[in-house]
Write a structure and sequence with these properties.
Helix content of chain B: 25-40%
Number of strands of chain B: 24
Largest interface: A-B, 19 and 17 residues
Strand order of the largest sheet of chain B: 16-15-21-20-19-17-18
Largest sheet of chain A: 3 strands, antiparallel
CATH topology of the largest domain in chain A: Alpha-Beta Plaits
Distance between the termini of chain A: 83 Å
CATH architecture of the largest domain in chain A: 2-Layer Sandwich
Strand content of chain A: 5-15%
CATH architecture of the largest domain in chain B: 3-Layer(aba) Sandwich
CATH topology of the largest domain in chain B: Rossmann fold
Strand order of the largest sheet of chain A: 2-3-5
Oligomer: heterodimer
Radius of gyration of chain A: 28 Å
Number of strands of chain A: 5
Radius of gyration of chain B: 30 Å
């Protein structure tokens, strides 16, 4: 194997003193520092930061609009176009839930209700967000397209009981979801 | 002898399998290639069951007649071809004739086996047939499994997974039928889910003798209905929900309470009457959700009265006693078991033997009745009784004796009528002759005919109850007690069969098992008494003392119980079933 001898680069006098490079570096740093003071940090827009540096000031600033479509946040119940609660409390999500975070008390829809033909809906629906591992199994198993993982990830509370999402809270998070299969249509 | 022997062997060698089987009243049947002997007259479906092959079916139920209308149990059948005139049948090396398979399937539920018959429960013909039948059954099925209580134990779900297509080819609009129909106190009807197996109709007609159900309309519009002007209010109506293979008939009591896959099953027995129907208690966590009958052909066949299966609801109420109570200045205050037992024993010890009486209950288990007898012996009193509960039998499963363990009480106490002394005790209490009373599991003011002012005359009253009640308000010491589903115990039913309950749930609060509180009381009264470590030990000492129980343990009783004595009492429903089996109406 041939041996290639690498020559050391020949440095000029200026290069040998190093000050030039140090000064250049400091200029770059200072330029960023000044830009930051003026609120014009590079990349601030993409990171949705205030411009005071590129560190996102969470929770004042959030990256929510950058969350992907498939983001798995808090599971929540949804209603359909007709404001019907889609959940019929079949309890499959309760069954599949790996950390046993879901607790459902099934109930009957009274005969004078508009949706009496659906017969069943949850009387209570609790998801313990301390237990939830955001796996999305509940969404996958749901035969009624009633439970979805929403982009909500800020689930905080000062007490354990606050961390349990009840039925009302779950519908608040879930909201209305359109374009789903209307199984309980006029033919049913 | 020596001359006959070789001749006999020679004939034995010539004997064909059919002759060998015929001697025993059996026939040879080939099921999925395997030859077995089954009794003559066996249904093909039962013969398959004998070799461990379950032929899928909906309408067939061994306790009911076989109309053969669901067509799910179709199998392929073959018989030896008929020999030409004059020709002798040909037997192969194995002694069987060659089977000629029929090109079309037959139903296995209503056909009986014959000599040299072949049955195929698998194969192309059978499998495509099942697939076809399943497709027809699902044509008008609403597929509302998410809201159907039967989901999880639905034969339609199971068989469509096993034998269905997975995809529907049906393009037309499904027939709409009545849903959520109120047809009786305990039963809800959903006609869209019905697959017209007619099990419920036959049950109400043949077993319950109340034929209120029937089919109306024709073709795809056929639906199960109650006859006009009638309702399904029979006390056996919930059995129709049990035998319904789909969710067409469901229980109102269990409706939307819990999905079945969450429930744990505990084998137990019913303690609402002397029959002691075998049951399964379905629980989740510490809550009972339903009770269903468990098949025991010597006790309850496969059925159970509604009133008894719904009785568990009275156990799970808010008025349960949860801790021992002692009366202080006319008020009951909670206390420790130790103090309550000591207080109870103290008051009893102050009386003369003839001033103390014990009113036990026919609802108590053998172990508890045995300890009660020991307490009576320790107190030196012979005033020991149960409260009689004789009413009328319903002519089916509800015994005239509403106490589940009267037989046990007579065996253990060695008396013909364990309730004989109730009148004497009642009079003794009224006259003030009896000063102390122990009341176990009975509300004297409700059923035993006692008066509140008489109970006030007592200087000491110890009572043990599951629920708060008027008798307990008069008691000096009240001990909380466990219900039927909360203890492991044995009972002897009216026919003399020893059966056991198993613990399905845990009693609330500080409640102790009854044997524990009785043994603790006995230990206070009799210093030499060694408190047993478990209920098994009590059954052991009971078995060593009472002849009828000899050698019995919780293990030996098993799930179906053992007959330990013959009382001569019969269960009417079993007699009716026996008659139907003998007439060939049902398999049994």
């Amino acid at each position: 194997m041939a041996i290639i001898k690498v020559e050391r680069p020949k440095l000029t006098a200026g290069e040998k003193v190093y000050f030039g490079s140090i000064f250049k570096g400091m200029v770059i740093t200072l330029r960023h520092a000044f830009k930051s003071l003026l609120g014009k940090s590079t990349g601030a827009e993409a990171l949705n930061s205030s411009g005071m540096g590129i560190t996102m000031q969470y929770p004042e600033q959030k990256w929510d609009d950058q969350l992907p479509e498939y983001y798995r946040g808090a599971p929540a119940l949804v209603t359909d176009e007709l404001d019907r609660e889609r959940c019929v409390s079949c309890q499959l999500c309760e069954f599949i839930c790996p950390p046993k975070a879901i607790k459902i008390t099934p109930g009957e829809i009274p005969s004078n209700d508009e949706w009496a033909k659906v017969e069943k809906r949850p009387k209570e629906f609790d998801i313990d967000m301390i237990r939830c591992i955001y796996c999305g199994m509940c969404e996958e198993v749901c035969p009624e397209q009633a439970i979805y993982l929403r982009p909500d990830y800020v689930i905080t509370g000062t007490e354990r009981s606050e961390m349990v999402h009840d039925k009302k809270r779950l519908y608040e998070i879930g909201g209305k979801r359109v374009g789903l299969v209307n199984k309980w249509n006029d033919l049913k | 002898m020596s001359e006959d022997a070789p001749a006999n062997t020679a004939t034995a060698e010539k004997q064909l399998p059919k002759d060998l089987a015929a001697e025993k009243g059996m026939v040879n049947v080939q099921i999925d290639g395997k030859w077995i002997q089954v009794p003559r007259g066996t249904r093909m479906i039962e013969a398959a069951k004998m070799v461990g092959t379950e032929v899928p079916h909906y309408c067939y139920h061994p306790k009911l007649s076989s109309p053969g209308n669901c067509r799910m149990c179709l199998v392929q059948m073959g018989m030896p071809p008929r020999p030409a005139p004059g020709a002798a049948p040909e037997y192969g090396d194995d002694g069987f004739q060659k089977i000629g398979w029929m090109p079309r399937p037959v139903i296995a539920c209503a056909n009986t086996v014959a000599e040299n018959m072949g049955i195929r429960t698998t194969g192309d013909l059978v499998e495509t047939t099942r697939e076809g039948v399943m497709e027809f059954l699902l044509i008008n099925h609403p597929l509302d499994c998410p809201i159907c209580d039967q989901a999880g134990e639905c034969k339609l779900q199971e068989f469509s997974v096993e034998h269905g297509r997975g995809q529907s080819r049906f393009k037309e609009t499904k027939i709409k039928k009545p849903k959520n129909v109120d047809i009786g106190k305990n039963i809800r009807l959903d006609d869209e889910r019905c697959i017209m197996c007619s099990r419920c109709i036959r049950f109400m007609d043949e077993v319950a003798d109340d034929p209120v159900l029937g089919f109306s309309q024709r073709g795809t519009n056929t639906s199960v209905t109650v006859h006009p002007g009638y309702r399904l209010d029979n006390n056996y109506s919930l059995n129709t929900a049990d035998i319904c293979p789909v969710g067409a008939l469901t229980s109102n009591d269990f409706r939307f309470q819990m999905r079945v896959w969450f429930l744990k099953e505990t084998k137990s027995i019913d303690t609402n009457c002397g029959t002691g129907a075998n049951t399964v208690i379905w629980t989740r966590g510490n809550e009972i959700f339903r009770v269903t009958p468990r098949q025991n052909d010597d006790v309850n066949s496969a059925w159970m009265p509604d009133s008894h299966r719904l009785a568990f609801n009275t156990l799970q109420t808010d008025d349960r006693l949860t801790s021992p109570l002692v009366q202080k200045d006319g008020k009951h205050v909670g206390t420790s078991w130790m103090e309550a037992t000591a207080k109870a024993a103290e008051g009893l010890g102050m009386c003369q033997p003839n001033e103390v009486a014990i009113i036990a209950s026919g609802r108590m288990s053998n172990e508890e009745l045995y300890l009660t007898k020991k307490i009576a012996e320790a107190l030196g009193t012979d005033l020991l009784t149960i409260v009689p509960r004789l009413e009328e039998s319903d002519g089916k499963l509800i015994s005239a004796d509403r106490n589940p363990n009267t037989t046990g009480a007579s065996l253990i106490w060695g008396t013909d009528d364990p309730a004989a002394k109730i009148d004497a005790i009642r009079e003794g209490v009224a006259s003030g002759k009896i000063k102390s009373l122990i009341v176990l599991q009975e509300d004297l003011l409700a059923e035993a005919g006692f008066k509140a002012e008489d109970l006030e005359k007592l200087s000491h009253l110890v009572s043990s109850h599951t629920h708060a009640n008027p008798t307990a308000t008069h008691a000096k010491v009240v001990l909380p007690s466990v219900g039927f589903a909360e203890k492991r115990a044995t009972y002897v039913n009216v026919t003399g069969r020893l059966q056991r309950t198993n613990q399905a749930v845990i009693a609330p609060g500080e409640t102790r098992d009854d044997w524990e509180s009785l043994a603790a009381l006995l230990a206070q009264l009799d210093q030499e008494y060694e408190t047993p470590a478990s209920v098994d030990k009590i059954l052991n000492s009971l078995a060593s003392e009472i002849e009828a129980f000899k050698g019995q343990t919780f293990g030996s009783i098993g799930d179906l119980g053992v007959q330990i004595t013959e009382t001569g009492v019969t269960i009417p429903l079993l007699e009716q079933e026996k008659a139907r089996v003998e007439s060939g109406q049902v398999v049994g």
